[in-house]
């Protein structure tokens, strides 16, 4: 039985454990910043039988929504969890606006995920990550799909 629901503070330890093994050049969160983001953003989780498989933090940037953290637990990846979670929350975001996110140029799994959901690359920030890699900017728009770069 799967559920998409809002984050509650009791989820924090589970989410800290979920992100720990995922840390790397393109996904690096300091513990304190991570804790703050969970509550300052609108955080949604995808839970199966009491275990959180995936979560997303969404910020209201005024002009657009922004996905700031997107992650699936290591042993639950490639089972459709994130696709299910993002499809669900993207359909419910009000007001309807563009969605922005940044992804490490070498994070091909995440890029395939976003492209499959209809995001298009709309920009590039060179030298954005600590390892010197670029961030690809992706945008999703329901009513005005943007051309691929
Ligand atoms: C990227 C990430 C969130 C994907 O989550 P997931 O739950 O495994 O993704 P899903 O199973 O829902 O996959 C949906 C689609 O994404 C793409 N995808 C996901 N993982 C992939 C991989 N390892 N290689 C290629 N494509 C992949 C596929 O198109 C997939 O559809 P398919 O299985 O029908 O081919 C996950 O790998 C993750 O948490 N990575 C570490 C943290 C991270 O990089 N976050 C994103 C930062 S921008």
Structure description:
With 149 residues, the chain is α+β, with helices and mostly antiparallel strands. The chain has one domain (2-140): Aminopeptidase. Helices cover 26% and strands 34% of the residues. The protein is built from four helices and seven strands; from the N terminus they run E-H-H-E-E-E-H-E-H-E-E. It has helices spanning 12-19, 31-40, 81-92, 108-116; strands at 2-6, 42-48, 51-60, 64-72, 98-104, 120-125, 135-140. The chain has a seven-stranded mixed β-sheet, with helices on both faces. Strand 2 (42-48) and strand 3 form a beta hairpin. It is globular and about 40 Å long. The relative contact order is 0.15. Mean pLDDT is 94; it is low at 145-149. It binds coenzyme A. Coenzyme A is lined by residues 22, 26-27, 54, 70-72, 77-83, 103, 107-110, 112-113, 116.
Features:
single chain, 149 residues, alpha+beta, Aminopeptidase, 26% helix, binds coenzyme A
- CATH fourth-tier homologous superfamily: Gcn5-related N-acetyltransferase (GNAT)
Seen as an oligomer or otherwise, the chain set is single chain
Would you state the CATH class?
Alpha Beta
**Distinct compounds present:** coenzyme A
Shape estimate: globular
Q: Work out the number of β strands.
A: 7
Q: How many strands, which pairing sense, and closed or not: the largest β-sheet? A: 7 strands, mixed
The overall pLDDT, averaged over residues, is 94
Summary, kept brief:
The chain has helices at residues 12-19, 31-40, 81-92, 108-116, and strands at 2-6, 42-48, 51-60, 64-72, 98-104, 120-125, 135-140.
């Amino acid at each position: 039985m799967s559920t998409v629901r809002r984050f509650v503070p009791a989820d924090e330890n589970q989410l800290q454990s979920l992100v720990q093994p995922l840390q790397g050049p393109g996904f690096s969160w300091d513990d304190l910043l991570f804790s703050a983001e969970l509550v300052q953003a609108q955080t949604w989780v995808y839970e199966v039988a009491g275990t959180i498989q995936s979560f997303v933090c969404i910020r209201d940037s005024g002009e657009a929504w922004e996905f700031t953290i997107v992650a699936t637990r290591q042993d639950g990846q490639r089972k459709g969890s994130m696709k299910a979670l993002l499809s669900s929350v993207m359909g419910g975001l009000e007001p309807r606006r563009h969605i922005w996110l940044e992804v490490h140029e070498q994070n091909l799994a995440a890029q395939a995920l976003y492209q499959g959901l209809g995001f298009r690359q709309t920009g590039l920030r060179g030298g954005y990550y600590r390892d010197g890699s670029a961030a690809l900017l992706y945008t999703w728009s329901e009513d005005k799909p943007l051309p691929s770069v």
